[in-house]
Specification:
The complex is a heterodimer of chains A (413) and B (225).
Chain A (H helix, E strand, L loop, with lengths): L1 H14 L1 H36 L6 E4 L10 H4 L23 H9 L4 E16 L2 E10 L1 H8 L5 E3 L4 H4 L3 E5 H6 L7 E6 L4 E10 L4 H4 L2 E5 H8 L8 E6 L6 H7 L6 E4 H4 L1 H39 L1 H9 L4 H34 L3 E4 L2 E3 L6 H27 L3 H6 L1
Parallel strand pairs in A: 3-8, 5-7
Antiparallel strand pairs in A: 1-9, 1-10, 2-3, 2-6, 2-9, 4-7, 5-8, 6-7, 11-12
Helix pairs in contact in A: 1-14, 2-12, 2-14, 2-15, 12-15, 14-15
Chain B lengths: L4 E12 L5 E12 L3 E6 L5 H8 L7 E6 L2 E2 L5 H11 E4 L11 H12 L4 H14 L15 H13 L5 E5 L7 H17 L3 E5 L3 H5 L3 E6 L2 E2 L1
The chains are: A alpha+beta (413), B alpha/beta (225).
Chain lengths: 413, 225
C-alpha cells in the first residue's frame, strides 16, 4: 500500500516540475534566510564574547565591599525599637585576598581550569606636573597576563615583555599617556589611596580599541605593585581564572563560592548588559527568519491547494478504485515532505554560500576586517527542522482537503 | 453457479436535500446473480445512476440495506468500503478517467499495487495479459493522455479487471464511444460474464446495448418497472 502511494506522489512531483521547483524555491529562500540571519547574529555575538574576553577572564575571584553592618542593634533587639546610629561606618578588615595560595592550589587541581592569573589591582592617580588623571593600575605577571588577554597584540609602542625586567617600568593605555602628555622614556608619578607616591618610567603604550580601557588603565609588574601598596609577597586582589568551556562557569563557581569568603563572579554576570543585547538580537533574528519561513509555507500551501484543485478528478478516481482517505493524505503530504526536505537541504547550502559571500564584504570593527559570521550546527539544524515543520503543516491542510473529496459528486459532475 | 446471489439490495431509498427535498430512489429491492450481465436503464432523472453509485458503495447516504458477496456493507466506514471496492469491484466510467500523468501500464496496475496481494512482476504480467486481450499491448508504455477515447476506455476496462473483481460496474461506459468501439466494449463485457462468471452491472442509454444483455432493470421516477 505504502509504496504505491509514494509512487503516485513522485509522479505528481515530477510531472509538473516547474510548479514543484517554485514551491521548493520558497523553502530554499526561507531556510537560507534563516541560516544567514542566525549565522550573522552568532558571528556578532561571538565577536562580542571574544572582545569581552580581551579584558575579562571567565571567572574572577575578588574581595567585594563588605555588607552594610552599621546598624548592629537591629539584629539583636527584637520588636520595633527606635534606633539612631550616628556616623555609621563600614569597616573592611581585610583588603584583597588574604591567603591566595590555598585557592590557587585548589584551582590548579580542577580539570576544567586552563589558566590562573593572580593580579594586584588598585585605583591610583597618574600625575605628570599639573596633569592628574584617575585610573586603574594592574599589577600582573607579565607572561601569564599575555597568555590570558593577548595584550602584546595591542601594543602600539614599546615591547610588552620589557615589563618583566623593569620593576619601575609602566605600560599605559595610549589615550591615558596622551592626556598626561608623556612619551616613552618619560617619568610618571603614581599616587595611591593611602597617599604613597612613586615614580615609574613609561616603557610602552597599548590600544585595545575600547576607550574606557585605553584612557584609564596601566600595567606594572605584580611585585612593583605590591611594593607600591606596601603589601607582602603573597598579596593579591583578584584571581582571574580561565576554563575549558567558557559557557560552563557554573559548576566550578558552585563548588568554589560556598567555601571561600570572597566573591566568585562569572563573565556572564560581569557582562550582563552585553549578554541581554545578544539575546535580543537572537530573538529578532529568529522572528524575522520564522516570518520568512511562514511566507514560504503559504507559498507551499497555495501550490498544494492548486494542485489538488487540478487533480480533483484523479483523486476521485483513486478513491473509486479503492484508495482510502488516508492514502490520499499520504500522497499529498509526502509531496510536501519531499519539497520541504530537498528545499531544506538546498536552503542550507544556499544560506551557507550567501554567508560566505557576504562575509567577504570588508567591514572594520575592532579586531575584525570583515562582517563576522559564525556557523553553528544548532542554527543549521533548527533551520532545517523549522523548514520541514512548516512545509508539513502547509501540506497537511490541503492534503486533508483532498482526503475529504467525495468521489460521487466529482465523478457524476 | 448461476443461482448464486452476488448482490442484494433491499428497500433502498435515497433523498436529495438540494435544491429541494426530493426522493430520488423509492424503496428499491432486487437481487443480482453471479455472472449476470445486468443493464440499468431509464430516462434521465429516473435515478439509475444514483442507484449505481449506491450499489458501488461510493455513495453511503441512503436508507435500506446493501449486501455484496454475502457481506452486509451498509453502515461500514468509508475506508472499509474503499478496501472492499479495491478488491471486489471494478469501475468503468463514461469519461474514461485515467490518470493522465501515468503510463497505460501504470494506470492498469494501480488498483493491484494498492491491493498488494501479488508481487509487482506478477501484476505487470497480468496487466500485459489484459492489454493483449483488449488488443492494446503495443500502447502499454504510452502516457494515458495520448490515447484515443476508445483506447482509453479499453484501458479503463483493463484497470477495472486487474484485481479479478466479482462485480464490474459501468456508468454509461459506451456513452462517449462510436458504434465500433461500443461493440468492442460490449463483447468484452459479454465475454467476462459468460467465460469468467464476473457480474456486470452497467447503466446505459443505449437500447441496443441493453437489449443484448442478460437482464434489464428499468427505473422510472426512482422505482423499478
Amino acid at each position: 500500500m505504502a509504496s504505491v502511494n509514494y509512487k503516485i506522489a513522485f509522479v505528481h512531483l515530477t510531472f509538473k516540475i516547474k510548479q514543484t521547483m517554485i514551491a521548493m524555491l520558497g523553502v530554499v529562500f526561507g531556510i537560507s534566510m534563516y541560516v544567514f540571519m542566525n549565522s550573522f547574529m552568532s558571528g556578532i555575538n561571538d565577536l562580542q564574547v571574544t572582545l569581552a574576553f580581551s579584558n575579562t577572564a571567565h571567572i574572577r575571584i575578588y574581595n567585594d565591599i563588605p555588607p552594610d553592618h552599621t546598624n548592629l542593634i537591629q539584629t539583636v533587639v527584637k520588636g520595633n525599637p527606635v534606633i539612631r546610629v550616628h556616623n555609621g561606618r563600614v569597616i573592611k578588615y581585610t583588603e584583597g585576598i588574604k591567603s591566595p595560595a590555598p585557592i590557587i592550589k585548589w584551582l590548579t587541581g580542577q580539570d576544567e581550569v586552563t589558566g590562573i592569573e593572580p593580579q594586584v589591582n588598585s585605583n591610583v592617580f597618574f600625575r605628570n606636573g599639573g596633569n592628574k588623571v584617575n585610573g586603574k593600575l594592574s599589577g600582573i605577571d607579565v607572561e601569564n597576563e599575555n597568555k590570558f588577554f593577548k595584550i602584546a597584540d595591542f601594543m602600539v609602542s614599546g615591547r610588552w615583555n620589557d615589563l618583566k625586567f623593569q620593576p619601575e617600568g609602566i605600560i599605559m593605555g595610549s589615550i591615558l599617556a596622551k592626556s598626561l602628555s608623556i612619551n616613552i622614556g618619560n617619568n610618571v608619578n603614581l599616587l595611591t589611596n593611602d597617599g604613597v607616591s612613586k615614580n615609574y618610567k613609561l616603557i610602552g603604550t597599548f590600544q585595545t580599541g575600547e576607550t574606557a580601557i585605553d584612557n584609564s588603565k596601566a600595567y606594572v609588574n605584580i611585585n612593583s605593585s605590591r611594593q607600591l601598596l606596601g603589601k607582602n609577597q603573597d598579596y593579591v586582589t583578584d584571581i582571574q581564572v580561565n576554563i575549558k568551556n567558557y559557557r560552563q562557569t557554573w559548576p566550578i563557581i558552585g563548588r568554589l563560592a560556598p567555601v571561600i569568603p570572597y566573591k566568585v563572579e562569572s563573565w556572564e554576570t560581569a557582562n550582563e548588559g552585553m549578554l541581554s543585547a545578544s539575546k535580543l538580537r537572537d530573538i529578532i533574528a529568529m522572528a524575522v527568519s520564522l516570518t520568512i519561513l511562514m511566507v514560504a509555507g503559504f507559498g507551499i500551501f497555495n501550490i498544494m491547494n492548486m494542485t489538488i484543485n487540478e487533480k480533483v478528478r484523479e483523486i476521485a478516481i483513486l478513491k473509486a478504485i479503492g484508495f482510502s482517505g488516508g492514502d490520499v493524505t499520504v500522497i499529498f503530504l509526502f509531496q510536501a515532505l519531499v519539497i520541504g526536505f530537498i528545499g531544506g537541504i538546498l536552503g542550507l547550502l544556499f544560506g551557507y554560500v550567501v554567508c560566505l559571500l557576504i562575509g567577504l564584504i570588508p567591514f572594520k570593527i575592532e579586531a575584525e576586517n570583515h562582517l563576522p559570521f559564525a556557523y553553528h550546527f544548532a542554527d543549521f539544524y533548527m533551520a532545517f527542522c523549522f523548514g520541514l515543520l512548516i512545509t508539513l503543516f502547509a501540506g497537511y491542510l490541503p492534503a486533508r482537503k483532498a482526503a475529504r473529496i467525495d468521489p460521487v459528486t466529482i465523478i457524476r459532475g | 453457479m448461476e443461482n448464486n446471489i452476488v448482490l442484494t439490495a433491499s428497500h433502498i431509498s435515497k433523498y436529495f436535500q438540494q435544491p429541494d427535498p426530493f426522493q430520488v430512489l423509492k424503496d428499491i429491492s432486487f437481487e443480482v446473480h453471479t455472472g449476470e450481465f445486468l443493464c440499468l436503464t431509464g430516462k434521465s432523472g429516473s435515478g439509475k445512476s444514483t442507484l449505481l453509485y449506491v450499489l458501488s458503495t461510493m455513495d453511503t447516504d441512503y436508507r435500506g440495506e446493501l449486501s455484496l458477496k454475502g457481506e452486509k456493507l451498509t453502515g461500514r466506514s468509508i475506508n472499509q468500503l474503499a478496501a472492499f471496492r479495491n478488491e471486489h469491484i471494478g469501475f468503468v466510467f463514461q469519461f474514461h478517467y485515467l490518470l493522465p500523468e501515468f503510463s497505460v501500464l501504470d494506470n492498469i496496475m494501480l488498483p493491484a499495487l494498492k491491493l498488494k496481494k501479488k508481487s509487482r512482476p506478477e501484476i505487470e504480467d497480468k496487466a500485459y495479459q489484459h492489454l493483449q486481450l483488449l488488443g492494446m499491448e503495443d500502447q502499454a508504455l504510452k502516457p494515458a493522455s495520448r490515447l484515443s477515447g476508445g483506447q482509453q476506455q479499453r484501458v479503463a476496462i483493463a484497470r477495472a479487471l486487474i484485481n479479478d473483481p466479482s462485480i464490474i460496474m459501468g456508468d454509461e461506459p459506451t456513452g462517449n464511444l462510436d458504434s465500433k468501439n461500443t461493440s468492442i466494449v460490449f463483447d468484452i463485457f459479454k465475454q467476462l460474464s459468460a467465460d469468467n462468471g464476473q457480474t456486470i452491472i452497467t447503466v446505459t442509454h443505449d437500447e441496443d446495448f441493453a437489449r443484448r444483455s442478460d437482464r434489464v432493470i428499468e427505473l422510472n421516477d426512482g422505482q423499478l418497472l
